[in-house]
UniProtKB/TrEMBL annotation:
It holds the Pfam family Abhydrolase_1. This is Hydrolase. InterPro entries: AB_hydrolase_1, AB_hydrolase_fold, Serine_prot/Carboxylest_S33. The lineage of its organism: Bacteria, Bacillati, Actinomycetota, Actinomycetes, Mycobacteriales. Residues 1-31 form the signal peptide. Keywords: Hydrolase, Signal. Belongs to the peptidase S33 family. It comes from Mycolicibacterium flavescens (Mycobacterium flavescens).
Length: 506
């Protein structure tokens, strides 16, 4: 299959970690309702035509679970968007899918998966279900902290100067973003978008579907949501596949360092492959790959690079476009084309398109809300150190493990993350995941995954007492992306509850 379901947020922002601090009880079945209709209005006519049996709807949940009695459902609510594609054969139950982010739309993903997996054992035996968490995708209210014009302006700023004055400027940009988010969404809404709440919301949808248990497939951040659900509702898990695992026991600093190291590994793999072709913009000497890359992108701090788009290519967009390409080898050719355009001084359009794809900008200049949701969810999912010294230390370590991402010399100063300025406190903290029971979970991890490094898969499998499927490759996530070895093992587990062989490597 050609689809790649989709990514965790990259090194450009920190990933979230969530703690199962409270075991929630689901609301009475009578209080969770779901009315179905055609999906055209939600996913668009083209996607709806590709899965004509799909039905869409929404489930209401309270903005603040602590202030709501389901017998008295007054107060502010959010509406979770839901898609369901019925099984075509001997039905087992529902397979809920979350594509990651946080902030990616499960509704859109399931619409695409339903078409791509048509005729497979998965669509025959399971209703495919996607639930957009509160604030995400097609759910309402949609979490938006900035306008399209404001996002464009943000991307034009290099955010690369780590002098004291430069750090002060970057932190002011972050502070303004946090304040804008509070003003536009309200602190009550922002306080309730964490992963623990999303897991509780997911169980409300289970009740509305009338299902005693769910099967679940989570990609990237979706593994974190799945692990949170398994901790809160272990008896409601039938089977769970977690692909592109996040280790919930890591603090944000350590997670970011490991992720940066993963992207450096992917960059080296890309550059090595590029060097096999004549005219590679990074040359043929491995010792010079990073230096050549800096020679191409660092001048963009002072002046945008050439593109047919009047925006030009900013420094921030060059880095974002590069990172996007490192998620999958199928994007490498576009990275090469963009870097060649920079080297020749002609047109680096492909790097800008890669950055637009990552940031969710369409040709008309409209953005999805994925990046705003990503930040808001991550900021309440873990505490971030507020002292500047921690972030200077992060910068020092990052330059060691991921030199291709570093600009200029180490200064001893670095901006604190936007989450240190967030208008609501974190609601969770790092923790170890727990098992919902023997034989219920399988973890999949890719050796060269840049966004969710392989070691996280090993750690998550150990914490959940689950078998690990290892995929040898350089990409982010693999299930149902065309590898027969992985897909056969996953289908056998989901359909027949057959665990993969010990130590399976694909």
């Amino acid at each position: 299959m050609s689809a790649m379901w989709r990514r965790a947020g990259s090194i450009l922002c920190a990933l979230a970690v969530v703690s199962p601090m409270v075991l929630f009880v689901a609301p009475p079945a009578s209080s969770a309702t779901l009315a179905w209709s055609a999906c055209d209005a939600m996913v668009g006519e083209a996607k709806a035509r590709a899965v004509p049996t799909a039905r869409c709807g929404s489930v209401a949940v309270p903005i603040d679970w602590t202030k709501t009695d389901w017998t008295k459902p007054e107060g502010a609510q959010a509406n979770l968007a839901v898609i369901r594609i019925p099984a075509t054969g001997d039905r087992i139950g529902v397979l809920m899918v979350n594509p990651g982010g946080p902030g990616a739309s499960a509704v859109d993903t399931v619409a695409e998966m339903g078409a791509a997996l048509a005729g497979s054992a998965i669509t025959e035996r399971f209703d495919l279900v996607g639930v957009d968490p509160r604030g995400v995708g097609h759910s309402t209210p949609q979490l938006r902290c900035r306008t399209d014009a404001e996002f464009d302006a943000f991307r034009r700023d290099p955010l690369a100067d780590y002098s004291p004055a430069g750090v002060a400027h970057i932190e002011q940009v972050y502070r303004q973003f946090a304040q804008s988010c509070a003003q536009r969404m309200g602190t009550d809404f922002l306080a309730g978008v964490g992963t623990a709440t999303a897991a509780r919301d997911l169980d409300v949808v289970r009740v509305a579907l009338g299902e005693p248990q769910i099967s679940y497939l989570g990609y990237s951040y979706g593994t974190e949501l799945g692990a949170a659900y398994a901790a809160q509702y272990p008896d409601r898990v039938r089977a769970m596949v977690l692909d592109g695992a996040i280790d919930p026991d890591l603090d944000p600093i350590e997670h970011r360092i490991r992720q940066m190291a993963g992207f450096q590994k992917a960059f080296t793999a890309y550059a090595t492959d590029c060097a096999r072709s004549p005219g590679c913009p990074l040359g043929t000497d491995p010792a010079q790959f990073v230096t050549r890359y800096h020679q191409l992108v660092n001048p963009l701090v002072q002046r945008p690079g050439p593109t047919s788009d009047p925006r030009g290519l900013s420094y921030q967009d060059a880095i974002t476009g590069t990172v996007n390409a490192l998620y999958s080898q199928r994007y490498w050719k576009f990275l090469t084309s963009g870097l060649l355009g920079l080297a020749r001084g002609t047109d680096a359009e492909d790097l800008l398109l890669l950055a637009d794809d990552y940031q969710g900008r369409d040709a008309a200049g409209r953005y999805t809300n994925q990046q705003d949701a990503f930040t808001a969810i991550g900021c309440v999912d873990s505490p971030y150190p507020a002292d500047p010294a921690s972030w200077a230390q992060l910068d020092r370590r990052a330059r060691e493990v991921a030199p291709f991402l570093s600009y200029g010399p180490f200064t001893g100063f670095a901006p604190r993350d936007v989450c240190t300025m967030w208008p609501v406190p974190p609601t969770s903290s790092p923790h170890q995941a727990s098992s919902p029971g023997p034989g219920k979970v399988v973890v999949v991890s890719t050796t060269g995954d840049p966004a969710t490094p392989y070691s996280a898969g090993i750690d998550l499998a150990r914490q959940m007492d689950a078998p690990l499927i290892t995929f040898e490759g350089t990409q982010h996530t693999v299930v149902f992306n065309g590898d027969a070895c992985v897909d056969t093992a996953v289908v056998d587990f989901l359909v027949d509850s057959e665990s993969p062989p010990d130590g399976l490597r694909c």
